[in-house]
Specification:
binds nicotinamide-adenine-dinucleotide, alpha/beta, globular, six-stranded parallel β-sheet, 10 helices, Dihydrodipicolinate Reductase, domain 2, 25% strand, 356 residues, 2 domains, single chain
């Protein structure tokens, strides 16, 4: 039996969900919903969905639908996820899980009450390069990982639109880009309990819509005059086991070029996940840099998305456990909100102090 799926939010990222569902023999794209009627109709036509909705409550009332992907703005994730779970649907919700820790805990409660699967769209967890490194870590090849360092720096890349509207997004590069790299490090470090965070955010450069001769991705409702999110965030995250994670992310920065780097350092070896897979170790008093041989040495977005959707379908069918359950979404929200709070207060805060 194929799984009848509804996709709520028919903007940019819905395309990756829809392509992956369309490539799966186990799923049927049954319904599409968007506030923007044209967008919903276009996607429904392209992916042969039999139903089109403009109000997600109507989609959720459709008893034929067993699972939904939530691909809307961040401010609606919690509300739609909770309603979907109460309507008896399994849920794949895009990252971040939501905007606040309070919302995250309500989603977690709804998952427990409903007994349905909720998978958070931490797509990097499903990437082949992550799986390769995870295998080495699980076999203790790196020993205890005590330090990780992750950067995702755009020199010019504030997408504007809802991304630049704190009310709808919850923040800028930290909640949009930082969520991915913090999560993948935390996952590979073995999900240690977070002790404290110390963060800084800066809004020094604006969205730099004045810059000419360089193009960048712009949200559909881009408006150069609107921007209420930070340009840059950095943080150190301390864990109870003594490990630490250092992170910096930007929408814009006076950097020479864009940069993505994700590195993990253990007692027996190190791993570079991005920009390219590398394993570093020492054998017979000699340092070895080993390059795993794979079809893609870096993060393969399309493949990772297909893996994520396939894993969601298998989890709904009871064949697998999701790799990114709601509990992990809650922990990541505590870290992100903790960093914003630390930045506001100008001091390191223990995670118990995060406002809920
Ligand atoms: N996994 C990834 O790498 C990745 C990449 C990009 C975006 N995202 C996430 O996907 C989500 C959507 O981002 P996007 O870039 O596709 O944005 P988008 O603006 O292109 O699309 C969002 C769509 O949601 C619709 N929408 C908003 N509220 C709605 C509601 N209540 N009911 C129905 N439709 C509603 C909007 O009309 C819009 O068409 C965000 O949470 C974002 O963080 C994830």
């Amino acid at each position: 039996m194929t799984l009848k799926v509804g996709v709520i939010g028919a903007g940019s990222i819905s395309e990756s969900h829809l392509q992956s569902y369309a490539s799966s023999k186990e799923a049927e794209i049954y319904a599409i919903c968007d506030l923007n009627e044209q967008r919903a109709q276009d996607k429904a036509k392209k992916y042969h969905a039999s139903q089109v909705y403009y109000d997600y409550n109507e989609l959720l009332a459709d008893e034929n639908i067993e699972a939904v992907s939530i691909c809307t703005w961040n401010n609606t994730h919690a509300e739609i996820a909770i309603a979907a779970l109460h309507a008896g649907k399994h849920v794949l919700v895009e990252k971040p899980l939501c905007k606040t820790v309070e919302e995250a805990l309500l989603v977690e409660q709804a998952v427990k009450q409903s007994g349905k699967v909720l998978q958070v769209g931490f797509v990097r967890r499903y990437a082949t390069n992550t799986a390769i490194i995870k295998n080495f870590i699980d076999s203790n090849e790196l020993g205890e990982i005590y330090y990780a360092k992750a950067s995702c720096l755009r020199r010019l890349g504030n997408p504007g639109g809802w991304f630049a509207d704190k009310e709808r997004s919850g923040g800028g590069p930290l909640i949009d880009l930082g969520v991915h790299i913090i999560d993948v490090c935390w996952y590979l470090m073995g999900r240690p309990k977070v002790k404290s965070v110390s963060g800084n955010t800066y809004s020094k450069l604006g969205n730099r819509s004045n810059v000419q001769n360089l193009s960048f991705y712009k949200a559909a409702d881009y408006d150069p005059s609107k921007n209420t999110v930070e340009d840059l965030a950095n943080a150190v995250i301390r864990f109870e086991n003594g490990a630490s994670l250092l992170v910096d992310v930007s929408f814009t920065l006076h950097a020479k070029e864009d940069k993505v780097a994700v590195n993990l350092y253990g007692e027996k070896g190190g791993a570079e996940l991005e920009p390219e897979l590398n394993l570093i170790t020492e054998k017979h008093n000699t340092i070895l840099n080993a390059v795993p041989q794979t079809d893609s040495a870096t993060f393969d977005f399309t493949q990772a998305f297909q893996n994520e959707i396939d894993h969601f379908i298998a989890s709904v069918k009871g064949d697998k456990q999701t790799l990114s359950p709601v509990e992990d979404g809650v922990e990541i929200m505590k870290i992100l909100c903790g960093i914003y709070e630390s930045s506001e207060k100008g001091t390191e805060i223990s995670l118990e102090e995060v406002k809920i």
